[in-house]
Amino acid sequence: MKFLSDIRLLLLGLWLGAAVFFIGVAQSSFAVLPSRELAGTVVNRTLMILNFSGLGISVLLILTSLFVGKVANRFWLWTERFLLLIVSAACAVGQFVIAIWLQFTKAQMGGKPIDEVAVDDPLRVQFNNLHQYSEWMLMVGMAAALLAFFIIANRRSGTAAVVAKSSTTTNDPFDFSKEFVKK
Q1: Which residue, of 25, 38, 89, 151, has the greatest Cβ tally within 10 A?
Q2: Which residues contact 134 (CB under 8 A, 6 or more apart)?
Q3: Which residue has better confidence, 173 or 101?
Q4: Number of domains making up the chain
Q5: Residue 67: its pLDDT value, please?
Q6: Which domain holds residue 34?
């Protein structure tokens, strides 16, 4: 089970790292690329990859959590599953709801770059609000993934402690009788 737990931690850690890296890519794209439209296209494509991978990884981790059920505390196991469900929901909503609304809103602008639309235009306001919701979905997914990561990591170290505790003859931390036995 240690191997499965390590793989689960690796997958979740990779997605969290990719999400943090995405934030840097998004900021760098708008700072470096010549047009904001081009930067938005890069960010949109990268976010799509992040959302699909988050959805796939969280579903896979929920499925693999069925194999660790006998070893784990039921409360923490269901908490982990719930958090992973939040990650998958955040990625799905971000990709299949908000991103589609963003594309639809952008199409309604008539193909004009967003910066050319007036700030008080209802479509620009809607676009900005949807963009904000997209950021919130990513933050919710990242927070849930981070909490799930700590739960999985704690269970991994907790099971090692249970195995170590069961192999000793006493639970008394001040029992030094083994240390003074002649061999």
Answers
A1: 151
A2: 47, 94, 98, 99, 102
A3: 101
A4: 1
A5: 85
A6: 2-159
pLDDT surpasses 90 at 77: yes
- DSSP H or E run through 168: none
Contacts for 156-162: CB closer than 8 Å, 24+ residues apart: 156/2, 156/5, 156/6, 156/9, 158/73, 159/1, 159/2, 159/5, 159/71, 159/72, 160/2
For residues 146 and 105, what is the distance between their CA atoms, to the nearest angstrom?
A: 32
Q: Is 171 within a domain? A: no
Cβ-Cβ contacts under 8 Å for 101 (sequence gap 6 or more): 130
Whole-number mean pLDDT of the chain?
88
Closest C-alpha to 166, from 174, 177, 154, 158:
158
Phi, then psi, of 111 in degrees rounded to 5: 80, 5
Cα–Cα distance for residue pair 8/151, rounded to 1 Å: 11
Count of CB atoms within 10 A of residue 30's CB? 15
CA distance 87 to 81: 10
Question: Which two structure tokens, joined as six digits, stand for 70?
Answer: 């006998």
Residue 181 pLDDT grade (very low, low, confident, very high; cuts 50, 70, 90): low
The answer to whether 114 and 36 have CB atoms below 8 angstroms apart is: yes
pLDDT of 69 reads 61
Calpha distance 50→157 (Å, rounded): 29
**Is 183 a member of any domain?**
no
